[in-house]
# Entry
Amino acid sequence: MPADHDADTELPLSKTRRKQAMEELQTLGEELAGLSSDRLKKIDLPESLHDAVRQVQRMTRNDEARRRQMQYIGRLMRDIDPEPIRAALAEARGDSAVEIARMHRLERLRAAILADERALGEVANEFPGADLQHLRALRRSALKEQANGKPPRSYRALFRELRALSGDTTLDTDAADAPDVDDASDD
# Structure
């Protein structure tokens, strides 16, 4: 009978493991606190956690108060499933496979537009509300920048326009420069 009893009960986590789990949740809370308010709204959070995160975002000066608030966020996160939050944060960082595939598709579309202006027809079909005149102007500017060896401002602006057309309206400053990893290969 003792063997059956042991199989039915779970061993309690060690104090070290519990502390590590709490620190992981607190770190996840810190990532939440670092998001823009638009990105934060897109993540399904309990109201109490959302309010606590918004409160820590407003804290700028008192390090001790911020530390206590982060601990409180970690405590609130113990009562919820953190996996949907991790997935949403991964997407916000661009780590998710879907987000990476979308970025690559937009990069290929940008390259096609730069290679041949007729690719704007594909943009018009896919995004009926697209301002083709603006996209043509960005294309011309990007080609001129490449020819003159200037910084790729219009090249990046073209990507941002395509990204906005695809439905991503929450451009963080980091996210707006994310596609630039392929800039080095284009020079």
In short: Residues 29 and 156 are 31 Å apart (CA to CA). The longest helix spans residues 15-33. Confidence is low (pLDDT under 50) at residues 169-187.
